[in-house]
Queue: 2 jobs
Job 1
Amino acid sequence: MKKNFFYALGMAAMLCGCSSGSVEEDGNHMTATGLVGGLGNVVMSASYYDFKEEDPGCEFSGFSQLENFGRWTSEDSCTIWFDNIVPNSELTVKIGVVMTCPSGEATKYDAYANGSYICSGETYPGSVYVNIPADKVGDNENLSIGLKIKNPKRPIDINPSIYDSRLLGLAVANITLYGYSLEEEEEEIEAE
């Protein structure tokens, strides 16, 4: 519930700059819509997915079973599917990473949105941010995020006394999607 308070606070702050607006909440997803004078309708959204829960609120593949911290990526690639995305919105995906590949080195990855390459990076435990442009989100309400792990490791290969042969990359605790879109006002042309 604490996260909902902060999302609502952010949505309310956005609406303070609008001449009219509304906030809607649906489970782990909040959307604020407001009219900004001279610009048009602004839609902001925030969605939180807790990978420490049996059902994080999204579909996924390429992850291990639930552990106390969340889930490991358990192959060299994983995919997460989200719905209720604001179409044609700019998105920032924040991935809460609690551990990286068992060798202790940074985990290297390529990120994809709806099958299109977005970026490459490497991370240690912390937050990974992936910015997705509106043209990669598209005009539907569904989004798939794919991660290709470039250097996954098996714990047993690092330390033979650990009988864990899974191919691990990132230990994910949660994912938050932040989005916004702007529908510009059409100027009325007066007939002369």
Job 2
Amino acid sequence: MKSVYVVADNILSPLGRTTEENFANVSNGQSGISLHDDPAMSAGPFYAAMMKEGQLESSWHDESLEQYTKFEQLLILSVQNALDRTAIDITNGRTAFIVSTTKGNIELLEQQENPADAPLQEMELFATAKKVAQYFNYKEDPIVVSNACISGLLAILTARRLILSGRYDHAVVTGADVVTRFVLSGFQSFQAVSSEPCRPFDAERKGVTLGEGAATVILTSDQAHVTPNAIRVGAGAVSNDANHISGPSRTGAELSTAMQQAMKGSGLTPADIGFVSAHGTATLYNDEMESKALHLAGLMDVPVNSLKGYYGHTLGAAGLIEAVIGMHALQQQVVIPTLGFRSLGVPHPVKVSSQISSRPMQHFLKTVSGFGGCNAAMIFSK
């Protein structure tokens, strides 16, 4: 079977507008999370990782992107930066263009005094993806992946399968989400938003912290575009808890199944995994479930981290942002610590990374979970 590689990437977030800036800041323990007091967003102060005022505008080059929404700007700027790093032509007819998100342009709903006046077509995910694709002169229909918080990783998995099927030689996979009043109030209604920066897997964790940003990866099976530091995209798997519309599995069995299928499909065992980049939202039930899944999958002795303390939960971009950081950590042979973690607060003794460490490794496992009981897991290798 031919292999699929990541040959270019980008992260655009409060921690920087390139992957290099993001990885340096994460490696130095810097968080994008800060306290916000905006009555238009929330009745009270809240913690979130949000783009600073003027940060996107400073990323514009010769042309203005004022005609695009914040969500669309995130996608365009991230894709452009990734494309600038490879000779792959997005318009060649053999390249898939995949967009992942949970809420897309939902902010347009908030800009209307009467919600009935909202521009529904502009809010449709496919219409937004088409608009972004047209910016890059992409002539085919883009593909939208929107499956709660597994969207970003599922988009990579989808791209890999499309390339292996022979339909495409390359894929541009991008994803973004924006912190809006709609999104924030939704999590607040669950009483799931932390009153402090989130603390994944910690005994004193109080809930999720939201974040915004975008990430892009460019995949190919064409050896002519593969560089020595390219990351090979291994097998991935998806499962569903069939348990509750918002609550996760009580056993972790379904996420464990996805983990085991990803490892088996890549010909690996738990002993081969350098680290697990977990979902780690810092909600009570999610982190409990993940610890159970890691135990069932035989990954109790493997270092585990969550990047939510740096980025917050970026929803449809989370799987992409966190996978890219994981790829660069694999290249550097380091395990990133879990920011905010102090003492273990989950049922099984997960080996949570609490400080940056170095170790020889060839593979890491990325996992994500989301509302509706969806789970995904994927292997990335040097």
